Amino acid sequence: MTKEKSSMINLGLPENMAIQLENLNSDFLNHHFKAKSGLESVDWVIIFKEGILSLHKADSSHTEYTKVAEELVESRFSAYNQIKQISHIPLLLLELLHDNSQIAEQKFEKLTFIHDKLIEIHHQFPAHDKTSNHQLSILKQSIDFISQIMSKKPQWNIEGIIQLYSSYLSNISNSLEYNKEFVTKIQLSRFNDITQEWIDEQGLDLHATRAILVAAHGPRPGLIEFQYYIDLFAKIGIVDAENERVYNLEQLPQHFSLLTDKDLIQDFLAVSEKNKVIGTVFADDPKMMFSDVLAQKAPGVLHALPKPETNPLSLLGHSKSEKGICPMRTQNSEMNRFFSHPSSTVLSKIENQDCSSPVNTFTSYF
Questions:
Q1: Which DSSP string corresponds to 289-350?
Q2: Which of 250, 272, 291 is the last residue of a domain?
Q3: What value does the mean pLDDT of the chain take?
């Protein structure tokens, strides 16, 4: 006998009454998401999106916000951007060497191209201070690493490339650490300068301000711009500002341009602010609406759910020896085997690699 699907359980309410109930709920949701009542105490909104900080001021009724200032945080050819780009070279090389979509000969052509471009940049890079010297070191070590690969092309092997790449990362690790600290200081100092400028010139009142940061989906834990605003509000006595004064909105990068400032303020921020009011009134918890209200009930229900039964037919045609076999291991060429090989401390051994699970090579520097 087929079990009744849990989603199909019916309370027995007549259909016409069920429709009325559904309509009432729709009215609530429509009113909730269109409501602007949450913005009465918000005079200023700061938005950070696609490298631009903008400041928006409310009118007397708090129904419209006008952009009064805008600052590009870092220019295209700023030290901040160039140092990040140089620090990404090891990632560029790893992505290329680990790209399974290309045959080895194509990889070598790209490596040659990168090698030649890095030599040009290295020759033109000015050596005038400690920061420049660290960039020159990364460039030189990267050039040497590629040269070693190219020189061993006919008889290259997996173990050799793993050792070389690990050594390469070790050689540039101090410079990468220097770069992380340097660009963090640049970025946060720039944010602080802009904030002070807006306080002086626009009359920005931080106590009546909200900040919205539009970040790429799955932002790194500890996003420094988010940390800046949390710290900024803490310095004026507003603690625990996450989802209270500072909002982090995740988006796929290709969708950034679809979000207007008006959307962020009138839709996202207004609803978020109203959610705080609802949470406070309903449960004396302004953050209640920022998490699933059913969350605390889930563990008990999950514990009681039965384990799915295996369909015997699904086992046909699957032998134990086939599970986890990586197509990379069928390559005849030792050189091709390397180019599909993930890193050891950086790249894990391929012989027991299960292709069904993604490989974390190494953490992005920043």
A1: GGS-TTGGGHHHHHHHSPPPPPPGGGGTT--GGGTT--GGGG-S-HHHHHHTPPBTTTB--S
A2: 291
A3: 79
